[in-house]
Protein backbone atom coordinates (compact mmCIF):
# COMPACT_ATOMS: atom_id res chain seq x y z
CA UNK A 1 0.00 0.00 0.00
CA UNK A 2 1.56 3.29 -1.03
CA UNK A 3 -1.41 5.57 -0.65
CA UNK A 4 -1.12 7.34 2.71
CA UNK A 5 -4.87 7.64 2.92
CA UNK A 6 -5.13 3.86 2.82
CA UNK A 7 -2.72 3.31 5.69
CA UNK A 8 -4.29 2.00 8.92
CA UNK A 9 -4.58 4.30 11.88
CA UNK A 10 -2.03 3.65 14.61
CA UNK A 11 -2.57 3.64 18.34
CA UNK A 12 0.76 4.44 19.94
CA UNK A 13 1.80 3.67 23.51
CA UNK A 14 4.50 5.92 25.08
CA UNK A 15 7.99 4.68 24.22
CA UNK A 16 11.02 4.10 26.41
CA UNK A 17 13.42 7.08 26.40
CA UNK A 18 16.47 4.82 26.15
CA UNK A 19 16.76 2.99 22.84
CA UNK A 20 16.20 -0.78 23.25
CA UNK A 21 18.59 -3.46 22.05
CA UNK A 22 15.73 -5.28 20.36
CA UNK A 23 12.42 -4.45 18.75
CA UNK A 24 10.36 -7.65 18.82
CA UNK A 25 7.77 -7.49 16.03
CA UNK A 26 4.76 -9.81 16.13
CA UNK A 27 1.95 -9.84 13.54
CA UNK A 28 -1.24 -11.32 14.95
CA UNK A 29 -4.48 -12.46 13.34
CA UNK A 30 -6.91 -14.35 15.56
CA UNK A 31 -3.96 -15.53 17.64
CA UNK A 32 -5.60 -15.86 21.05
CA UNK A 33 -4.58 -19.52 21.21
CA UNK A 34 -0.87 -18.63 21.07
CA UNK A 35 -0.13 -15.04 22.03
CA UNK A 36 0.16 -15.36 25.83
CA UNK A 37 2.61 -18.26 25.61
CA UNK A 38 4.63 -16.32 23.03
CA UNK A 39 4.81 -13.15 25.14
CA UNK A 40 5.45 -14.97 28.42
CA UNK A 41 8.66 -16.49 27.03
CA UNK A 42 10.23 -13.16 26.05
CA UNK A 43 11.82 -11.99 29.35
CA UNK A 44 13.81 -15.23 29.77
CA UNK A 45 14.70 -15.29 26.07
CA UNK A 46 16.07 -11.74 26.24
CA UNK A 47 18.00 -12.46 29.47
CA UNK A 48 18.46 -8.86 30.56
CA UNK A 49 18.48 -7.17 27.14
CA UNK A 50 16.46 -3.99 26.76
CA UNK A 51 13.59 -4.76 24.43
CA UNK A 52 10.26 -3.49 23.20
CA UNK A 53 7.35 -5.49 21.83
CA UNK A 54 5.49 -4.15 18.81
CA UNK A 55 2.34 -6.07 17.96
CA UNK A 56 0.57 -5.41 14.67
CA UNK A 57 -2.90 -6.90 14.84
CA UNK A 58 -4.58 -7.63 11.51
CA UNK A 59 -8.16 -7.01 12.63
CA UNK A 60 -8.51 -10.05 14.88
CA UNK A 61 -12.09 -10.98 15.68
CA UNK A 62 -11.15 -13.09 18.71
CA UNK A 63 -9.64 -12.11 22.08
CA UNK A 64 -6.07 -11.54 20.84
CA UNK A 65 -5.92 -7.78 21.52
CA UNK A 66 -7.79 -8.14 24.81
CA UNK A 67 -5.28 -10.71 26.04
CA UNK A 68 -2.37 -8.47 25.10
CA UNK A 69 -3.94 -5.49 26.83
CA UNK A 70 -4.60 -7.44 30.03
CA UNK A 71 -0.97 -8.42 30.48
CA UNK A 72 0.91 -6.62 33.23
CA UNK A 73 3.64 -5.15 31.03
CA UNK A 74 5.19 -1.72 31.43
CA UNK A 75 3.70 0.61 28.83
CA UNK A 76 7.20 1.55 27.66
CA UNK A 77 7.75 -2.03 26.50
CA UNK A 78 4.78 -2.31 24.19
CA UNK A 79 3.32 -0.64 21.14
CA UNK A 80 0.08 -2.00 19.72
CA UNK A 81 -0.66 -1.24 16.08
CA UNK A 82 -4.24 -2.07 15.23
CA UNK A 83 -5.60 -2.33 11.71
CA UNK A 84 -9.22 -2.24 10.64
CA UNK A 85 -8.65 -4.95 8.03
CA UNK A 86 -6.28 -7.86 7.43
CA UNK A 87 -3.51 -6.32 5.33
CA UNK A 88 -1.35 -9.45 5.43
CA UNK A 89 1.90 -10.54 7.06
CA UNK A 90 4.38 -8.51 5.02
CA UNK A 91 2.39 -5.30 5.23
CA UNK A 92 1.88 -5.86 8.96
CA UNK A 93 5.64 -6.21 9.46
CA UNK A 94 6.22 -3.03 7.46
CA UNK A 95 3.77 -1.01 9.56
CA UNK A 96 5.32 -2.32 12.77
CA UNK A 97 8.81 -1.40 11.54
CA UNK A 98 7.70 2.22 11.43
CA UNK A 99 7.53 2.06 15.23
CA UNK A 100 10.73 0.07 15.82
CA UNK A 101 13.56 1.80 17.70
CA UNK A 102 15.94 -1.08 18.40
CA UNK A 103 19.32 -1.78 16.79
CA UNK A 104 17.95 -5.20 15.93
CA UNK A 105 14.48 -6.27 14.82
CA UNK A 106 13.24 -9.73 15.76
CA UNK A 107 10.43 -11.07 13.58
CA UNK A 108 8.39 -13.48 15.67
CA UNK A 109 5.30 -15.49 14.84
CA UNK A 110 2.74 -15.66 17.66
CA UNK A 111 2.87 -19.48 17.53
CA UNK A 112 6.56 -19.49 18.54
CA UNK A 113 7.80 -19.95 22.10
CA UNK A 114 11.45 -18.97 22.59
CA UNK A 115 13.68 -20.89 24.96
CA UNK A 116 15.62 -19.03 27.69
CA UNK A 117 18.54 -16.91 26.39
CA UNK A 118 17.55 -17.53 22.75
CA UNK A 119 17.42 -13.84 21.84
CA UNK A 120 20.50 -13.02 23.91
CA UNK A 121 22.40 -15.75 22.02
CA UNK A 122 21.28 -14.41 18.63
CA UNK A 123 22.11 -10.81 19.57
CA UNK A 124 25.56 -11.82 20.83
CA UNK A 125 26.26 -13.67 17.58
CA UNK A 126 25.36 -10.67 15.43
CA UNK A 127 27.40 -8.35 17.65
CA UNK A 128 30.41 -10.63 17.14
CA UNK A 129 29.84 -11.01 13.37
CA UNK A 130 29.21 -7.55 11.91
CA UNK A 131 28.98 -8.89 8.35
CA UNK A 132 26.00 -11.12 9.22
CA UNK A 133 22.66 -9.52 8.34
CA UNK A 134 20.48 -11.79 10.45
CA UNK A 135 20.28 -14.93 12.54
CA UNK A 136 17.57 -17.46 13.35
CA UNK A 137 17.11 -19.86 16.26
CA UNK A 138 16.69 -23.53 15.48
CA UNK A 139 12.99 -24.41 15.46
CA UNK A 140 11.38 -27.56 16.80
CA UNK A 141 7.76 -28.64 16.95
CA UNK A 142 5.60 -29.10 20.04
CA UNK A 143 7.08 -32.56 20.60
CA UNK A 144 10.64 -31.29 20.35
CA UNK A 145 11.32 -32.75 16.89
CA UNK A 146 13.39 -30.51 14.58
CA UNK A 147 11.55 -28.46 11.95
CA UNK A 148 14.56 -28.12 9.67
CA UNK A 149 12.58 -29.27 6.60
CA UNK A 150 10.24 -26.31 7.12
CA UNK A 151 12.74 -23.78 8.39
CA UNK A 152 15.96 -24.15 6.41
CA UNK A 153 15.97 -23.97 2.63
CA UNK A 154 18.03 -22.67 -0.22
CA UNK A 155 16.47 -20.05 -2.46
CA UNK A 156 14.02 -21.56 -4.95
CA UNK A 157 15.00 -22.55 -8.47
CA UNK A 158 12.86 -23.91 -11.27
CA UNK A 159 14.18 -27.35 -10.42
CA UNK A 160 13.39 -27.21 -6.71
CA UNK A 161 9.94 -25.69 -7.29
CA UNK A 162 9.16 -28.36 -9.89
CA UNK A 163 10.14 -31.07 -7.41
CA UNK A 164 7.63 -29.73 -4.88
CA UNK A 165 4.80 -28.98 -7.30
CA UNK A 166 4.95 -32.44 -8.83
CA UNK A 167 5.32 -33.98 -5.36
CA UNK A 168 8.68 -35.50 -6.23
CA UNK A 169 9.77 -34.55 -2.70
CA UNK A 170 7.00 -36.85 -1.41
CA UNK A 171 7.46 -39.69 -3.89
CA UNK A 172 11.27 -39.65 -3.79
CA UNK A 173 12.22 -37.86 -0.54
CA UNK A 174 15.88 -38.90 -0.79
CA UNK A 175 16.43 -37.37 -4.23
CA UNK A 176 19.35 -34.98 -4.56
CA UNK A 177 17.33 -31.91 -5.50
CA UNK A 178 15.24 -32.06 -2.33
CA UNK A 179 18.22 -32.89 -0.12
CA UNK A 180 20.20 -29.95 -1.51
CA UNK A 181 17.29 -27.51 -1.34
CA UNK A 182 16.59 -28.38 2.31
CA UNK A 183 20.18 -28.41 3.60
CA UNK A 184 20.10 -32.03 4.68
CA UNK A 185 23.89 -32.10 4.55
CA UNK A 186 24.20 -29.72 7.52
CA UNK A 187 24.96 -31.26 10.90
CA UNK A 188 23.61 -28.16 12.67
CA UNK A 189 26.07 -28.44 15.52
CA UNK A 190 27.42 -24.91 14.99
CA UNK A 191 26.30 -21.67 13.34
CA UNK A 192 25.71 -22.13 9.60
CA UNK A 193 24.94 -19.83 6.69
CA UNK A 194 21.40 -20.35 5.38
CA UNK A 195 20.05 -18.74 2.23
CA UNK A 196 16.43 -18.74 3.34
CA UNK A 197 15.60 -19.22 7.03
CA UNK A 198 11.86 -19.00 7.69
CA UNK A 199 10.68 -15.67 9.07
CA UNK A 200 8.79 -17.36 11.91
CA UNK A 201 11.67 -16.35 14.22
CA UNK A 202 14.40 -14.21 12.71
CA UNK A 203 16.69 -11.50 14.14
CA UNK A 204 17.73 -8.84 11.60
CA UNK A 205 19.86 -5.72 11.91
CA UNK A 206 17.63 -2.66 11.73
CA UNK A 207 19.85 -0.96 9.14
CA UNK A 208 19.49 -3.96 6.81
CA UNK A 209 15.92 -2.88 6.13
CA UNK A 210 17.20 0.57 5.19
CA UNK A 211 19.62 -0.99 2.69
CA UNK A 212 17.55 -3.87 1.27
CA UNK A 213 14.06 -2.44 1.73
CA UNK A 214 11.09 -3.79 3.64
CA UNK A 215 8.82 -6.69 2.71
CA UNK A 216 7.28 -6.63 -0.77
CA UNK A 217 3.55 -6.27 -0.22
CA UNK A 218 2.59 -7.81 -3.55
CA UNK A 219 2.99 -11.16 -1.75
CA UNK A 220 -0.25 -10.70 0.11
CA UNK A 221 -1.59 -11.84 2.48
CA UNK A 222 1.28 -14.32 3.04
CA UNK A 223 3.75 -16.82 1.55
CA UNK A 224 6.90 -15.98 -0.41
CA UNK A 225 7.37 -12.51 1.09
CA UNK A 226 10.15 -13.84 3.34
CA UNK A 227 11.67 -15.80 0.43
CA UNK A 228 11.71 -12.61 -1.65
CA UNK A 229 13.32 -10.67 1.22
CA UNK A 230 16.09 -13.26 1.59
CA UNK A 231 16.63 -13.19 -2.17
CA UNK A 232 17.13 -9.42 -2.01
CA UNK A 233 19.60 -9.83 0.85
CA UNK A 234 21.57 -12.37 -1.16
CA UNK A 235 21.57 -10.00 -4.13
CA UNK A 236 23.43 -7.36 -2.09
CA UNK A 237 25.81 -9.87 -0.50
CA UNK A 238 24.16 -10.18 2.92
CA UNK A 239 24.42 -13.46 4.84
CA UNK A 240 21.76 -15.10 7.00
CA UNK A 241 22.63 -17.66 9.67
CA UNK A 242 20.99 -20.30 11.83
CA UNK A 243 22.33 -20.57 15.39
CA UNK A 244 21.62 -24.03 16.88
CA UNK A 245 22.48 -22.83 20.41
CA UNK A 246 19.38 -20.61 20.24
CA UNK A 247 16.14 -22.56 20.13
CA UNK A 248 12.41 -22.05 19.88
CA UNK A 249 9.32 -24.21 19.71
CA UNK A 250 7.15 -23.48 16.69
CA UNK A 251 3.68 -24.88 16.98
CA UNK A 252 2.74 -24.03 13.40
CA UNK A 253 -0.57 -23.34 11.73
CA UNK A 254 -1.50 -20.17 13.63
CA UNK A 255 -2.78 -18.54 10.46
CA UNK A 256 -3.53 -21.62 8.37
CA UNK A 257 -6.14 -22.84 10.82
CA UNK A 258 -8.21 -19.76 9.90
CA UNK A 259 -7.61 -19.92 6.12
CA UNK A 260 -9.88 -22.12 3.97
CA UNK A 261 -8.08 -24.66 1.80
CA UNK A 262 -9.25 -23.01 -1.42
CA UNK A 263 -7.94 -19.60 -0.37
CA UNK A 264 -4.57 -20.98 0.73
CA UNK A 265 -4.13 -22.87 -2.56
CA UNK A 266 -5.07 -19.80 -4.58
CA UNK A 267 -2.71 -17.46 -2.73
CA UNK A 268 0.21 -19.89 -2.41
CA UNK A 269 0.50 -20.71 -6.11
CA UNK A 270 -0.28 -17.15 -7.15
CA UNK A 271 2.56 -15.84 -4.99
CA UNK A 272 4.86 -18.58 -6.24
CA UNK A 273 4.21 -17.28 -9.75
CA UNK A 274 4.84 -13.69 -8.66
CA UNK A 275 8.14 -14.76 -7.12
CA UNK A 276 9.12 -16.57 -10.33
CA UNK A 277 8.27 -13.56 -12.48
CA UNK A 278 10.36 -11.34 -10.23
CA UNK A 279 13.45 -13.52 -9.80
CA UNK A 280 13.62 -16.31 -12.39
CA UNK A 281 14.38 -15.84 -16.06
CA UNK A 282 11.40 -15.27 -18.35
CA UNK A 283 11.79 -18.77 -19.81
CA UNK A 284 12.00 -20.39 -16.36
CA UNK A 285 8.96 -18.44 -15.13
CA UNK A 286 6.99 -19.60 -18.17
CA UNK A 287 8.16 -23.17 -17.62
CA UNK A 288 7.04 -22.96 -14.00
CA UNK A 289 3.56 -21.89 -15.13
CA UNK A 290 3.27 -25.09 -17.18
CA UNK A 291 4.59 -27.14 -14.26
CA UNK A 292 1.92 -25.63 -12.00
CA UNK A 293 -0.78 -26.48 -14.54
CA UNK A 294 0.55 -30.03 -14.79
CA UNK A 295 0.58 -30.31 -11.01
CA UNK A 296 -3.02 -29.14 -10.79
CA UNK A 297 -4.15 -31.64 -13.42
CA UNK A 298 -2.47 -34.46 -11.48
CA UNK A 299 -4.12 -33.27 -8.28
CA UNK A 300 -7.51 -33.08 -9.96
CA UNK A 301 -7.09 -36.71 -11.01
CA UNK A 302 -6.10 -37.72 -7.49
CA UNK A 303 -9.09 -35.80 -6.09
CA UNK A 304 -11.48 -37.52 -8.49
CA UNK A 305 -10.53 -40.91 -7.06
CA UNK A 306 -10.52 -39.70 -3.47
CA UNK A 307 -6.74 -39.62 -2.87
CA UNK A 308 -6.25 -35.91 -2.21
CA UNK A 309 -6.86 -34.20 1.14
CA UNK A 310 -9.48 -36.50 2.68
CA UNK A 311 -9.88 -33.99 5.54
CA UNK A 312 -11.53 -31.56 3.08
CA UNK A 313 -14.65 -32.13 1.00
CA UNK A 314 -13.92 -33.47 -2.46
CA UNK A 315 -15.89 -30.62 -4.00
CA UNK A 316 -13.83 -27.98 -2.19
CA UNK A 317 -10.51 -29.58 -3.13
CA UNK A 318 -11.55 -30.08 -6.75
CA UNK A 319 -12.69 -26.47 -6.98
CA UNK A 320 -9.45 -25.17 -5.44
CA UNK A 321 -7.23 -27.02 -7.92
CA UNK A 322 -9.45 -26.12 -10.88
CA UNK A 323 -9.26 -22.46 -9.86
CA UNK A 324 -5.44 -22.50 -9.79
CA UNK A 325 -5.35 -24.32 -13.14
CA UNK A 326 -7.55 -21.64 -14.68
CA UNK A 327 -5.52 -18.78 -13.20
CA UNK A 328 -2.23 -20.35 -14.25
CA UNK A 329 -3.55 -20.74 -17.79
CA UNK A 330 -4.40 -17.03 -17.77
CA UNK A 331 -1.06 -16.10 -16.11
CA UNK A 332 -2.91 -14.69 -13.10
CA UNK A 333 -2.95 -11.35 -14.90
CA UNK A 334 -6.61 -10.66 -14.24
CA UNK A 335 -6.67 -12.25 -10.78
CA UNK A 336 -5.17 -10.36 -7.84
CA UNK A 337 -4.25 -12.27 -4.71
CA UNK A 338 -7.08 -13.21 -2.40
What does this structure look like?
By secondary structure, this protein is an alpha/beta fold. It has two domains: 4-146 and 188-250, Spore Coat Polysaccharide Biosynthesis Protein SpsA, Chain A, CATH 3.90.550; 260-329. 40% of the residues lie in helices and 17% in strands. It contains 14 helices and eleven strands. It has helices at 35-40, 42-46, 64-70, 89-97, 118-128, 148-151, 158-165, 168-171, 176-181, 206-212, 225-235, 261-279, 282-304, 314-329, and strands spanning 22-28, 51-57, 78-82, 104-108, 112-114, 132-140, 152-153, 192-193, 196-197, 201-205, 239-250. The strands form two sheets. Strands 1, 2, 3, 4, 5, 6, 8, 10 and 11 form a nine-stranded mixed sheet that branches. A two-stranded antiparallel ribbon has the order 7-9. Helix 3 links the parallel strand 2 (51-57) and strand 3.
Write the topology of this structure.
Blueprint: E1 22-28, H1 35-40, H2 42-46, E2 51-57, H3 64-70, E3 78-82, H4 89-97, E4 104-108, E5 112-114, H5 118-128, E6 132-140, H6 148-151, E7 152-153, H7 158-165, H8 168-171, H9 176-181, E8 192-193, E9 196-197, E10 201-205, H10 206-212, H11 225-235, E11 239-250, H12 261-279, H13 282-304, H14 314-329
Parallel strand pairs: 1-2, 1-4, 2-3, 6-11
Antiparallel strand pairs: 4-10, 5-11, 6-10, 7-9, 8-11
Helix pairs in contact: 7-13, 12-13, 12-14, 13-14
